[in-house]
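$ fold --in a.seq
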Amino acid sequence: MQRRMLASFWLGSALLLVLLATISAQSVSTNQNPPTPLGELVDVGGYRVHLYCTGTGSPTVVIVGAGFSVDWGLVQPEVAKLTQVCSYDHSGIGWSDDGPKDSCALRVGEVHTALKNVGVQGPYVLVGHSLGGLIARLYAGRFPDEVAGIVFVDHAMSIKGRLTLTLLPGLTMPPPSPPDGTAVGPSGGPKLVGLEDDPNFSKLPSQDREAHVWFMAQPRNQKALQSNAEIVPQCLAEADALVKEHSQPLGGKPLVDVDTNQSAAAELQTQLLSLSRNSKEMVADKSGHYVIIDRPDVVVDAVSQVVRSARNKTPLQDKSTLVKYWEPSYR
């Protein structure tokens, strides 16, 4: 019953958010010419997806979203100093072509095929922000031998009606506000917050900011918005099924869950940490949902710990960490 109610909620929300995205797109002034792709367009079976790989070394870090590849402009260059890292735009967004009907299985297949077709060898450390956390879990369930570790960044959640989910790259509906009424929209519902509305958006390199804004102004992202809302219930069901089928499905592979003080979903964190016996939580102080620009230092630290643990076959250090805010030097 709860899952059916959530499905109805998201399908209804999609229609509202499509309208909001349309208004937002009409109000954005952009150049006529699209930005030049950062990486390469890789055929994944009759259409192409954008894959951007930098750095050298193993295990390769693979960013499976959500969001645009350019949204990781404060994280990817730092991770590339340690190992190879690839970010990706799923079909229908960014530089990628439109693809078949969207689903979590499709996205998992796109990442897998793109990596194989360009010769990037696994096993990989998967990094998933928001809905991308579900994609990472499903990839690990489908290709367990290709996963060396996982980093969740403010994982999408559905705990007793509380939801955090990237519905469209750059457009997010945070969980319902606490009783004090903070972060409530003018109609009394959850306030809509986009990556470009985050005060730290300006810290992204100018090239990445301009590409993000250009992409957000394109009408086809409205289709991606609706698709994201439609696939959520199935993604959650598939991820939950994996947990029920396997106790600690990742075994001893390193897992770090980067959470925020605003999330406060203890039940979800317990479930995520239980996926591996080699896991830890890192809480990013003074960060909203967009940890990748609010606290990129925490994300880089988490990825580095998982890479080193996988590379050296050693356990993660410390089981829980609150990472205090400091003004990062990323520009």
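$ fold --in b.seq
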Amino acid sequence: MKLVAVTACPTGIAHTYMAAEKLEKVAKKLGHTIKVETQGAMGIENELSQADVDAADAAILATDIALENEERFSRIRKIHVPVHEVLKNAEAIFDRLKT
């Protein structure tokens, strides 16, 4: 499965990047491709283009704050999860995409 994701937490430091890394690691383990955008203290990094979003099968929005440019995901299947859920059990999030 080809996926995109956005991670963002209130302070936008540690948990934002830890969640991005976890999603990338688990996606690779499960045989998926993923591109992850982070929104944090440094602003938007690894910004997803509309082409990235349109080419994806689904999006994981792992956020504890409002996302910038969330309208990009209006035409794609997506799941919203809190950042801590990614850190606790990322594989369960990928399982939810199967249904």
